[in-house]
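Quick note —
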Amino acid sequence: MGTKVFFTKVLARAMAEDRHAQKLQGKQLYVTNEESCYHFSATEHTSVSENVPCLTGHHEEADTRIFFYAQHAAQEGHSSILIRSSDTDVEVLAP
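Predicted structure written out below.
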């Protein structure tokens, strides 16, 4: 198991714990782990996690996955999306 995969598994497990609910309050966090994507949010004192099947994909590189997620955000009603990256590939792919 590579470092990136290990880190995202640890992050996903940690964010599902109720002790992180305050950090998630008013926010939405999406974590991709291999081919799965999880959405984390919080109610008053409880972390909420759910699998997001529509964001499951076979994008190996983050530079293409970013735009897949941006499209999902637009479909969810977000009118403004900011992508920051120092990766030249992302800058070339962005319109």
